[in-house]
């Protein structure tokens, strides 16, 4: 079984790699047979090529993930992390999405399942700067 | 489908009812066939009587849930909430557990599945007061 500490360290790696726009470092955290459901309730991205394409795009749009609380482990092979995704709205106005990711890990310590919890109402325009 | 807004309102009800030690109000949020996995990786509490017993105990020990971030919805029938559980350690010293709950809702808006993500390393003794 994965230790809770190791899973949480991988989740922090994920945030750091994403914020560095280092697509290869992000996707290296995933197993070849992984699935990504982002947001939960939409079709899965499955397997290496779909996950690579998803993160190539996601890391290309200037999004920045702000950690909102310490990651949580479990007594199984799952861990979770909550963050705010800072983005620009279509008109360039700052916006953000509140997200919680749940990741399941395989025996090799790779992510095999990622589920991102956020709804349409978790998208907000940021307060205007003074 | 449940609206993201409704699911998030139910999660905030859960926190409020738990902090009021109102066991009946907490368990009324659950469907009769619900399962609770708390923490993830341990055996399920299943069905009305096991869930009632679990929350009768959980709300009896003086735990207080502190919301750490806004709840998150999804594009499906799931939502998540992250909080800190303030408790007393066995010797009476203040302690806390960092937890993220993921809840799945049925068509009637009741919780049918609850999974609480926290590991042994998410338990901390609180800093001593000055």
UniProtKB/TrEMBL annotation, chains A, B:
Top-level taxon: Bacteria
Annotated protein name in UniProt: Steroid delta-isomerase
Keywords: Isomerase
Residue intervals of the SnoaL-like domain: 13-114
Residues that span the membrane, as ranges: none
InterPro entries associated with the record: NTF2-like_dom_sf, SnoaL-like
Single Gene Ontology MF annotation: isomerase activity
Organism: Paraburkholderia ginsengiterrae
Residues forming coiled coils: none
């Amino acid at each position: 079984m994965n230790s809770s500490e190791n899973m949480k360290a991988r989740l922090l790696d994920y945030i750091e790699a994403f914020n560095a726009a280092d697509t290869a470092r992000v996707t290296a955290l995933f197993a070849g047979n992984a699935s990504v459901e982002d947001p939960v309730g939409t079709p899965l991205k499955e397997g290496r090529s779909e996950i690579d394409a998803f993160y190539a795009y996601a890391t290309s749009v200037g999004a920045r993930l702000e950690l909102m609380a310490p990651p949580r482990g479990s007594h199984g092979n799952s861990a979770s992390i909550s963050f705010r995704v800072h983005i620009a709205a279509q008109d360039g106005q700052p916006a953000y999405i509140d997200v919680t990711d749940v990741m399941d890990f395989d025996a090799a310590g790779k992510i095999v399942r990622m589920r991102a919890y956020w709804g349409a109402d978790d998208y907000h325009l940021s307060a205007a700067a003074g």
